[in-house]
Amino acid sequence: MLDATVVNIALPKAQQEAARSGCCSAACHRMGVVALRDVRERRLRGPRPDRCIAAAGQARDHQEARPQFTDPPPHTATWSPPAATDCCRWRRPKTCGRQRGDVGRTVLMEAAMRDPWEVLTAGSHDADRSVLLLPGGACAARSFNLVMADPALAGARLVATTMPGNAGAPPSKDVSIPALARQAGELAKTHDCDVVVGFSLGATVALDMVRSGQFHGPVVLLGISLTTADEARFFRTVVRASQKVGKWPMALLIQLMPLMARSAKTDPAHKKELIEDLKRNRAADTVPLCGEYLDYLAADRDPAADLASLNNPAWVVHAEKGDGGLTDAERATLEAAPNVTLVTLPGSVFFLPDEAPQQIAEVISAALAQAA
Predict the structure, then answer these.
(1) Enclosing H/E stretch for 320
(2) pLDDT of res. 57
């Protein structure tokens, strides 16, 4: 036969002893969580009437000062049983983040509250020209902060976005490059953008926007890889291995990316934000996205010839080292194209918008000058 006894490890010591003795007083019952205990176990230990009475008295005195309610307030999650000298208190669990008004939240909660296409804007709504900024893989919209703050773009409205599945943003159902290009095209239409700028993965999306007719204005392609040969072999190996053996190779790469960002030649405060955004990436979201990206690069087509055949003015920007590059054949095709301007930044640069914001802003300004 089972009997109900008071069991709560958070109670004061005297009350715990009372609970172990089998106390069933109403006051003790209200102070803790009711559990079921085998009556045989209680009989073996024997009753402890002295401690039961003492604990019941303490609980009764404390009960008189306790607020009379039975359900927790709507904004709270758990109730913490009071100590012998404190009133009854309500508290949030630590996993729920900080109190309302603070910006800190756990990554899981933040991802659930975020939109697949987050937008960061700068400049007046009445500006004559607008620019859509698409960051690189694993990066967030604020990776363009320094570019957006450059005086060369003071008269334009700038719209940066975090693409789905990057920097902790939730992925969309379809993360293929054509699907992302369609969604980015809708975003460009919504904000009346005259120029589209993309970095790395964002540049590939921007290129598909003009190839598919989603966008008809000037494009600036930063650190773009046109084909598989342009992309780093180490990155390709990690992505393909993660598709075969599980996401752990990508998880290791995500852990290494903040270490790479520490060597970025940029403003310390901006570098801190960059590292924070890189840490927000999740391998489960990154592997499908990067797999679609590599499949797009491996498709049987000639992106350089496609770009050269378009009417869109285009700027293709690379550093001498660090951000990938073009094959000799691709460079020759683009150099001969009347609508394409090749820009090479000196030195080694990996995060182009973060490490060379002034040069990037000047290129965007030139693109704005040619916007119809």
Answers:
(1) strand 314-321
(2) 52
Reading the block at residue 286, the tokens are: 């990154």
- The answer to whether the beta carbons of residues 306 and 208 sit under 8 Å apart is no
Predicted local distance difference test score (pLDDT) of residue 197 = 98
pLDDT of residue 115: 73
Residues in the chain predicted with pLDDT less than 50, given as ranges, are 1-16, 18-44, 49, 51-56, 59-113
Interval 262-278: pLDDT, tens? 999 999 999 999 999 99
Structure tokens given for 22: 């089998």
Cα dihedral angle (29, 32, 38, 44), rounded to 10 degrees? Answer: -80
Q: Which amino acid is at 263?
A: S
Neighbours of 33 (CB within 10 A): 13
Domains of the chain: 2-96 (no CATH), 116-369 (3.40.50.1820)
Whether 203 contacts 221, CB under 8 Å: yes
Alpha-carbon torsion 261, 277, 121, 160, what sign? positive
| CA dihedral angle for residue 27, residue 32, residue 33, residue 37, rounded to 10 degrees | -70
Helices (H) and strands (E) in the chain, counts: 16, 11
- The vertex-352 CA angle with 149 and 118, nearest 5°, equals 60
Q: At what angle do helices 177-190 and 283-298 cross, to 10 degrees?
A: 100
Q: Of the candidates 119, 149, 156, 124, which has an alpha carbon nearest to the alpha carbon of residue 134?
A: 119
CA 232, chain centre distance (Å): 24
Parallel, antiparallel, or unpaired: how do β-strands 157-162 and 118-122 relate? antiparallel
Burial state string for 188-215 with b = 16 or more CB within 10 A and e = fewer than 16: beebebbbbbbbbbbbbbbbbbbbeebb
Alpha carbon of residue 317 to chain centroid: 26
* Nearest of 254, 296, 229 to residue 165 by alpha carbon: 254
Q: Are 278 and 258 in contact (CB under 8 A)?
A: yes
Give the residue among 77, 96, 79, 100 at the shortest CA–CA distance from 88: 79
